[in-house]
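User: Can you recover a sequence for this backbone? Please restate the input before giving your answer.

Assistant: Of course. Working from this structure:
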């Protein structure tokens, strides 16, 4: 059992998204402004931070000090007004580790102003990374995960984010590894292409001991935007796409006026981008929770592999 766990864990890394809030500008009793947590290999990332985000984190058992990277799409209040409170609470709870914040350049000034007049000096380093609303760029990169921002078209500068998993190693043939008594210390190298030489000097190519790795997974997040073709390359073939669907298509004129997308348009975008699965969100307060299936049906008419995002639910990226 332990052999399977040691050699299988790398290729079984968790990659999932928790919806904390999926309402649009006006909070509702049963729905909260936009916020979500991405869990990749037990590293937590926060996307957007509407009002009440820290309460939602507590409600769903997420310790805020496990979050080291926060990504803010734009400066409409329903996407960032919870940030000052969350950052301040991290300070009060004795956080010491660095916190990286990615968002529109003016956000740094907004935070500084709040801390100036509350006479707050954070106990930890808040490291700000301004995003570029005009072109795609890599804002975070580690061996396991890369995050790219890309321009959306909203009433103010706005970016989407794509979480792209790094290349994963090949899968080890468990039976062959056990039969050859391959030392644990050599397993990782074999998965990455190194050959194995046994005690008698016989060489076993890595290709004979492994099978091809699964395709790296990706999660794309499109917050507020009018539908345009410009961002399709940035979300192309994502395993999971979260796309705003503020209105039913009967309100398409209103969607254009407010720089938003309808549920039908979100489904059409998912189809064009050839994604695996679509999650709807950013629902207008005009639709009660029991009415959200109308948006779902509309999106599914264009892209069947669609679900409504539900607060408190984890969605696997697969």
């Amino acid at each position: 059992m332990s052999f399977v766990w040691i050699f299988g864990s790398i290729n079984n890394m968790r990659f999932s998204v928790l919806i904390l809030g999926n309402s649009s500008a006006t909070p509702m009793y049963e729905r909260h402004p936009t916020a979500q947590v991405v869990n990749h290999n037990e590293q937590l990332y926060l996307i957007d931070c509407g009002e009440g985000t820290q309460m939602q984190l507590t409600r769903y058992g997420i310790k805020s000090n496990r979050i080291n990277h926060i990504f803010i799409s734009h400066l409409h209040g329903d996407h960032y007004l919870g940030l000052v409170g969350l950052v301040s609470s991290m300070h009060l709870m004795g956080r010491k580790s660095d916190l990286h914040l990615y968002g529109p350049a003016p956000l740094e000034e907004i935070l500084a102003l709040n801390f100036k007049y509350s006479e707050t000096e954070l106990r930890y380093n808040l490291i700000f990374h301004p995003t570029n609303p005009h072109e795609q760029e890599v804002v975070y990169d580690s061996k396991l995960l890369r995050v790219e921002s890309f321009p959306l078209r909203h009433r103010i500068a706005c970016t989407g984010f794509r979480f792209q998993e790094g290349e994963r190693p090949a899968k080890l043939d468990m039976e062959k590894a056990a039969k050859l008594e391959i030392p644990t210390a050599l397993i990782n190298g074999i998965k990455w292409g190194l050959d194995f030489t046994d005690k008698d000097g016989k060489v076993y190519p890595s290709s004979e001991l492994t099978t091809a790795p699964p395709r790296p997974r990706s999660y794309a997040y499109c917050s507020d935007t009018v539908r345009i073709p410009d961002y399709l390359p940035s979300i192309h073939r994502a395993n999971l796409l979260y796309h705003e669907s503020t209105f039913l298509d009967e309100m398409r004129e209103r969607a254009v006026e407010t720089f938003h997308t309808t549920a039908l348009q979100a489904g059409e975008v998912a189809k064009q981008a050839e994604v695996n699965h679509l999650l709807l969100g950013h629902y207008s307060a005009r639709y009660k929770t029991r009415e959200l299936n109308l948006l779902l049906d509309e999106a599914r008419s264009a892209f069947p592999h669609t679900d409504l995002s539900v607060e408190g639910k984890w969605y696997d990226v697969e």
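That completes the design. Confidence is low (pLDDT under 50) at residues 1-9.
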